[in-house]
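Hello forum,

I keep getting stuck at the same step: I have a sequence, I want structure tokens, and every attempt I make locally crashes halfway through. Rather than fight my setup again tonight, could one of you with a working pipeline run this one for me? It's a single chain of 173 residues.
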Amino acid sequence: MKPLLRGLFLVLPCCFGTVVDAGEEVGLMPVEDQAAAPDFNLPGPDGRTYRLAEYLGKPIILNFWATWCPPCRAEMPSMQRAHEILAPEGIAVIAINVGDDVEAVREFLADTPVSFPLPMDRDSVIAQRYPVIGLPTTFVIDAEGRLAFSATGEQEWDAPALLDQVRALQRPR
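Reply #2:
Ran it on my machine without issues. Output:
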């Protein structure tokens, strides 16, 4: 493991096991100061470069994950379903991989195909700019580019109550 990654994960607990059951009330935690979401410019396993600035103007679900993290892997199918529901509404789902190499992400995609962007933060530089406290951690960014909500641990991203919280961040048409 690279020294920068080792330092990050000594501070961060890895792989939270929090799961939201279907019968539980779903909710995202509001981010108090609603700071601007730090921009990123990261390559994806598909060879494309992804920038947060390309998605601003609409809500964004921004997830931080790793292939070696069981809760991260477990929530990916619900993130794909959320992407399929929200993309036609102009809401983006992006999952930044933290620390894996291209081969590991491609192997993951062979088992769990997703069609939303998977930028790769191989040296954890971007994860350190966000208030990530473990993996998976997800932020919901409002249409103005501010951190509005956060969630730590595995979530059911296609739960109707959670989707409604994200939709509420859309600009009026």
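The longest helix spans residues 70-86. If your local run keeps crashing, start a new thread with the error log.
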